[in-house]
Amino acid sequence: MRTTTRRTFVKGAGACAALGPCAPALAQTRTIRLGDTSALPIAWPIYIADKKGYFREEGLAIESTYTNSNPAVAQQVVGGNFDIGVTTYETGVRAIFGQAPLRITGSLMRAFPYVIMSSPDVKSPADMRGKTVVLPLAKSILTVFWNRWLVENGLKPDEVDQVYDAATPNRFAALKSRAAQAAVLSQPFDWMAAADGFTKLLDLGARVRDFGFTAFVARQDWTAKNPEAMKAFLRAVSRAVPFLYDPANREECADILAPPTKMDRANALRAWDYYATELKPFDKSLDLPDRQIELLVGTLIEMGDFRAGEDYRPSRFVDSSFLPG
Q1: In terms of domains, do 55 and 192 share one?
Q2: 219 and 312: one domain?
Q3: What is the tens place of the pLDDT at every residue in 107-154?
């Protein structure tokens, strides 16, 4: 597991001593152990909140660990290794329904940043018959979206060979090596594929606008003991959203995104153009609309993973009491 630490702190003990009042504030700085899957544009507001000092102003320092797995994030929040986790709505709802002592405390990304890229000879759904697509997981809402699209276009899912890999770089490698003729990719891998001659077969972000994607989860006992820390964390992230969307900040946002994600600057700027003017996946409120939870639960019932007739009220999964006012 790769660990990256981001900490925000006041530099210069001498300066602090001279100022006097800043010493208590420094003593009160709280480190938040944040779990995430990987360093991607999905977490852009977090990078901004850190770089612009929003976390520091809330008395927080953020220590981030990347697990390369959404379920692993939830598991390590439950286990106490992380205070707050960034994971998918789906992972959070599944865990909570399975009696994990978690709650979703706020949304991060309300839209899916995924497209399905395909070989140049695949120009329509029918061209996928007998070919291979690499998807994240067999039991994934993205796989459901893909299968629905096939059926709507006259194909049965079993007419396409479906293989699975949870890591986007691996899916990109499978496409580039021609081991698969289509793959689910996020940024910047879809642009890299396009540069290699692959084409966009399906824009999942545009297709499933009503479904939410990633959210913050935390243990109920932790938020009960640390409500102000949870609120402060969400306030800082919320402040970053309007900064990200402001066209005047395009260049600075790209400069903030490039180091953690290892994007080159051209792709970081391209990411801003896509996220800020087209996808618009972030919302300053960090709220989770009930409709997004209801659609997700309905899909999980359709998949056979949840039973109809159970208690699926959004309030069972979401605690909105920590959201910015």
Answers
A1: no
A2: yes
A3: 999 999 999 999 999 999 999 999 999 998 888 889 999 999 999 999
- Identity of the residue numbered 42: I
Residues 198, 174: Cα–Cα separation, whole Å: 12
- Identify which of 150, 95, 99, 149 has the alpha carbon closest to the alpha carbon of residue 296: 95
What CATH number has the domain bearing residue 21? 3.40.190.10
Phi, psi of 196 (to 5 degrees): -90, 5
Residue scoring higher pLDDT (8 or 77): 77
* Residue 3, in any domain of the structure: no
Tally of structural domains, the chain? 2
Q: Residue 296 sits in which domain range?
A: 13-111+211-322
pLDDT higher than 70, residue 306: yes
Q: Are strands 84-88 and 214-219 parallel, antiparallel or unpaired?
A: antiparallel
Which among 238, 244, 237 has a CA at the least distance from the CA of 276?
A: 244
Residue 25 clears pLDDT 50, i.e. is over it = no
Task: Extract the tokens encoding 219.
Answer: 């243990």
Domain for residue 135, yes or no? yes
State whether 221 and 308 are in the same domain.
yes
3-state secondary structure of 3: strand
Written as six digits, the tokens of 156 are 């049965």
Q: What is the pLDDT of residue 205?
A: 83
Residues 148-174 pLDDT 10s = 999 999 999 999 999 999 888 899 999
Query: pLDDT tens digits, residue range 233-247?
Result: 999 999 999 999 999
Helices within the chain (DSSP H only): 13-19, 22-27, 44-51, 54-57, 70-78, 89-97, 141-152, 168-176, 189-195, 204-207, 220-225, 227-245, 250-261, 265-274, 290-302, 314-317
Q: 277 with 217, same domain? A: yes
In a domain, 311, yes or no: yes
CA atoms within 13 A on the CB side of 177: 8
